[in-house]
Design brief:
single chain, alpha/beta, Nucleotidyltransferase, domain 5, 5-stranded mixed β-sheet, 3-stranded antiparallel β-sheet
Amino acid sequence: MACALGIEGSANKIGVGIIKDGQVLANVRKTYITPPGVNHCIGHIEMGRLITGAHNPIVLYVSGGNTQVIAYSNKRYRIFGETIDIAVGNCLDRFARIIKLSNDPSPARQAIYKIALREIADPSKKRSKRKKPDEPEAPEYTKADMCYSLQETIFAMLKLPSEPMAHCDSNEVLIVGGVGCNERLQEMMAVMCDELCMLLIDFLKN
């Protein structure tokens, strides 16, 4: 008797169908095997550990939807700190849309942020009062000024709590997530790690 074997697959599943003498012995739709689910956050962390060889790092997970300080303790990852209202990446993205900032240059380049921070003046005050003849013009602020100020302020607010360092007995810090690729954030975290006598794991050196 003839037996027909059919295999159907896609990026995330595979199924096998068997037909013998016109009779369906195995329906491909009922034999789908899906891979086990992977937590998005843990995927970021484990990939970072794999690439860098970090042993037991305190993780700063900074992405579009998450800003958390995470460490591994008692056979599971635990959150030791996180933003209350909005993630860092989400804040930057929203602000960029509000001021109609284009996506050119690409996210990998940071030319727009490499501008010296200047004094910012409120333009409404200029309109509300008459300028004296000898009074100098108030400086105008640009989109680059606002982006730089927002980025510096947000990154300066990211601090590593002491609890995970003591609780997990770790002296390594690993930054993961999309915003973790920001060179300015890496510079600021490197300074913080030096002050705390900790080692910032550098992706670029691996």
